[in-house]
Amino acid sequence: MLTNFEQVIQMLMPLLIQFNLGLSRPLLQMVATLTACLLEGTTAHLTALAEALPDVDTDHMAKEQRTRRVLSHSRLSPTLFLPVFVQLLRPVLATLPEVVLSMDRTHWKKRKRHINILMVSVHFQARAIPVFWRVLDRAGNSAFEHWKTVLTPVMTEFQAHAWLAKPPLIMTADRECASPQLAEWLKTTYHVESVLRLKRREYLCDQAQEITLADVLRFFPQGDTRYYPHVTVTKTSQFLVNVTITWSPDAEEPLLLIATFEGAGLGIMRYHCRFGIEAMFKDQKSNGFDVEQTRVTDSKRIETLLIFTTLAHIFCTTEGYRQEIQGDTKKNDGAAN
């Protein structure tokens, strides 16, 4: 009689083999086993994962060393597994009228080392699912070159599949990435629309005036929305965008957005999809896999560790969706009984 753990591994192995990743069978077995450990509730800590390995005749130190070798393996990378993530997500992505991606950064400090992760996720049912990332081995904000590094493989992969050709691809990002340069690059290079949150210090420019958004907001009434089509943002950019300023009655501050498509309401609606990445980071860092408390600090090992948490995250999402559409679970629509 197979245990649940063994059943999970037997389910994962054929899926990983079919992708022809060029990895040895023992290495694929370790990928499947570590992912199964996470699916069984093991936290993403080096010691916990090593302890959960099923080799009963191997002492803990040997298991921990084997886990370290896997995390340091040069062939295991987010780039290698990106096609795997997209294909595994096909059951949910194929149902979407548009595919909304979000880019954001999370950071923590462990034993005087900075763990700085720039991640791209895909929106699904008010949540976000990670698909690609880079660990920046330093403190501080990311920059345009970093954004291109994480977005180029994602855009290439998502646009390579015929089954993803019909739904439009939309990019969202928070204030750190709110650059007209990014919006222009996405539009001209990949024909991808975007909606990005602006900082107050940016300039709103048209043929008649140049004014900072901070000045526009000085007398901006709470509860109002204003739309500025076909303007430029910053004094140096000539790329035309559409700016929306909206201040919800229950919000502490207004929302400042630039979009490469028209319509204030559409920009606000699409940008709100971005908030799922905050919950996703919480799932990865504390609520679920507890990555933030891992003893691992090496950037390469963190990048590899996130492969296993992402595989587990995707399997949880797709299995939950399968059960939902088959009527095994009741969808939570937030309505009170």
Explain the overall architecture.
- The protein has twelve helices and ten strands.
- It has 337 residues and is an alpha+beta fold.
- A ten-stranded mixed β-sheet has the order 3-2-1-4-5-10-9-8-6-7, sandwiched between helices.
- It is elongated, with a radius of gyration of 22 Å.
Q: Which residues sit in consecutive blocks of at least 5 with pLDDT less than 50? A: 332-337
Name the helix and strand elements from N-terminus to C-terminus, one letter apiece: HHHHHHEEEHEHEEEHEEEHHH
Strand order of the largest sheet: 3-2-1-4-5-10-9-8-6-7
Number of strands: 10
Amino-to-carboxy terminus distance: 41 Å
**Annotated CATH architecture of the largest domain:** Alpha-Beta Complex
Helix content: 40-55%
Count of discrete alpha- or pi-helical segments spanning 4 or more residues:
12
Q: What's the CATH C level of the largest domain?
A: Alpha Beta
Q: What spatial form do the alpha-carbon principal axes imply?
A: elongated
Strand content: 15-25%
- Report the sheet with the most strands, covering strand number, pairing sense and barrel closure: 10 strands, mixed
Count of the domains: 2
Work out the radius of gyration.
22 Å
CATH homologous superfamily classification of the largest domain? Transposase Inhibitor Protein From Tn5, Chain A, domain 1
Q: What integer is the average pLDDT?
A: 89
Helix-strand category:
alpha+beta
InterPro entries: RNaseH-like_sf (IPR012337)
Protein name: Putative transposase
